[in-house]
Amino acid sequence: MYTEQSENVVYGRNAVLELLQNKPDTIEKIYFQFNTSHPKLKEILITARRQKLVTGKARLEKLNQISGTAKHQGICALISTVTFYTIDEILDHPRNSAPLLVILQGLEDPHNIGAIIRTAEAAAADAVILIEGRGAPVNAAVHKASAGALSHMRICKVKSLVRIMEYLHERGFHVYAADMDAELNYTDADLKGPTALVLGAEGSGLSPEAMKFCGSPVRIPIAGCIESLNVSVTAGILLYEAMRQRLS
Hints:
With 248 residues, this protein is of the alpha/beta class. The protein is built from nine helices and 13 strands. The protein has helices at residues 13-22, 39-50, 60-67, 87-92, 110-122, 140-146, 161-170, 208-211, 231-247, and strands at 4-6, 9-11, 27-33, 55-58, 75-79, 84-85, 100-104, 127-131, 155-158, 174-177, 184-185, 195-199, 218-219. The strands form three sheets. It has a six-stranded parallel sheet with strand order 6-9-8-7-12-10, with helices on both faces. A five-stranded mixed sheet has the order 1-2-5-3-4. The longest helix is centred in the C-terminal third of the chain and has 17 residues, at 231-247. 40% of the residues are buried. Keywords: Methyltransferase, Transferase. Pfam families: SpoU_methylase, SpoU_sub_bind.
């Protein structure tokens, strides 16, 4: 009955169910109304969870805001028009002789994600890797914040941060994460070889388990009164240090 309200949202029970059955790989997240009891909504949620898609409860006002209408029937699906690559596709056709990757875990602010994609493209990174079910979806806000860079940067989605870090370690990558307590200054890190820069969620950072796969955490010195930098600023500093080393 209802079709796409925009290129990023599908709403209505029939439309979302059809999307689930035919193009589940395009779905970033499904929002559904609290205390739902409609049989078709239950079918949608069961199907989505079976396919391991991300779902979340939302109040009526939130669904109205997402869909842009009150005719959403208690269900909205955020979709992505981005083409996602596998990690092997990226490594089999690298942009650089020594690949440079950016891994983002759980970033909730789409403006930060877009800004990082923009900087990664400017610094000639090979890809930005996202973790499925963690962080904001790649939606219109990310497109806008990237200032067009999303159309040029390869985006990869993986199921586990630890597994992708372990895999890259086996492929000979140096894996670095910023840590204000680290002993190694970021300018002293070797970023000329195959490198992965890992950035955790705003505020919480990376889990201890993930930090085990970081060869040497790196420190970005701060001389002022603040304790840390915005995650997109951190990404920019590390990416441009990598580019500086590779051009020198």
